[in-house]
Amino acid sequence: MSTLHTVNKSAYERNALKSCLDHALPGDAILLIEDGVYAARKGGSIAPALTAAKGNFKIYALGPDLAARGVVAGQVLEGIETVDYAGFVGLAADATRVCAWL
Amino acid sequence: MFEFGSPREGLVHSTSEVALRFSIQINEGPYTHQASDTAYQFTKAALEKGHEIFRVFFYHDGVNNGTRYTVPPQDDRNLQKLWTELAEKHKLDLVVCIAAAQRRGILDANEAKRQGKDGDNIAPGFRISGLGQLIEAGIQADRLIVFGD
Q1: Catalytic residue, candidates B97, B98, B100, B137
Q2: Which of A35, A93, A96 sits opposite B17 (nearest CB)?
Q3: How many CB pairs under 8 A join A and B?
Q4: A58-62 vs A29-32, strand pairing mode
Q5: Residue A97 resides in a domain
Q6: Residue A11, in any domain of the structure
Q7: Is A35 part of any domain?
Q8: What is the Cα A88 distance to its own chain's centre?
Q9: Structural domain count of chain A
């Protein structure tokens, strides 16, 4: 019984990621997509919150969206796994439900 | 009735994943942010993995994906065409919310006649129906994935 949370807006524009981190339950997965992937970048002001959350959740970022925004592999925070669209489908299948933080 | 997460006959199993039935909800048009693009890529990837797409429901500004009158530049992606082609290939059920469509001028032949308009613009592969179709999509699918603004 776990939830996949998708966050598609930049953490520097809206507080969707913060709300998600506050509401997700231990064992849930969080997938950053679209502008949401900016949060996965090292050195950002949201990075400490994501690093602290890593113990409770598995955190993923959508690779094609990172690439589209010029975030290269070396700039992604340690412990955030990059997935492609097939990986997104796999995460949705593995979870019991999917919650979009729009 | 089926059990949630139960394997379905006739569907290809890939890796450790059980073939599931997905429904997709899209709340955003092709030129707002990226929701329709992401939904399209997700749907394509799900079909490639052997999953079933029960329905794609276009809601709010998402109904703007369903007009055949958009003429984007030739080197630009044309989401309406992509959805229409994907629907043809995989016999997808693309449903446009009627109330959202009427507000935004998306009409099929019946609606155009009923509203006294001089033409319709619904794209091939799309159909106009009500919110009940979204509720059913949520009930019948193992997962409802929402893409939006």
Answers
A1: B97
A2: A93
A3: 58
A4: parallel
A5: no
A6: yes
A7: yes
A8: 11
A9: 1
Q: Tell me which residue range forms the domain holding A73.
A: 3-87
Q: Both tokens of residue B117?
A: 């308009």
Instruction: Please write the tens of the pLDDT for every residue from B76-133.
Output: 999 999 999 999 999 999 999 999 999 999 999 999 999 999 999 999 999 999 999 9
- Is residue A99, in this structure, part of any structural domain at all? no
Q: Map residue B129 onto helix, strand or coil.
A: strand
Looking up tokens 């990986």 gives: A87
Residue by residue, pLDDT tens for chain A (102 residues) are 799 999 999 999 999 999 999 999 999 999 999 999 999 999 999 999 999 999 999 999 999 999 999 999 999 999 999 999 999 999 999 999 999 999
The CA distances from residue B94 to A2, B50, B83, B86, B121, in Å, are 29, 19, 8, 10, 15
Listed residue (B88, B92, B109, B76) closest to B42, CA to CA? B92
Angstrom distance (rounded) from CA B145 to CA B149: 13
Active-site annotation holds for B97: yes
Spell A30-42 as b/e; 16+ CB within 10 A means b.
Answer: bbbbbbbbbbbbe
CATH of B21-68+78-147, one of 3.30.470.20, 3.40.605.10, 3.40.50.970, 3.40.1260.10: 3.40.1260.10
Chain A nearest-CA residue for B19: A93
Whole-complex ipTM: 0.97
- Pairwise CB contact (< 8 Å): A64 & B147: no
The closest alpha carbon to B59, from B42, B88, B35, belongs to: B35
Measured in degrees and rounded to the nearest 5, phi and psi for residue B110 equal -60, -50
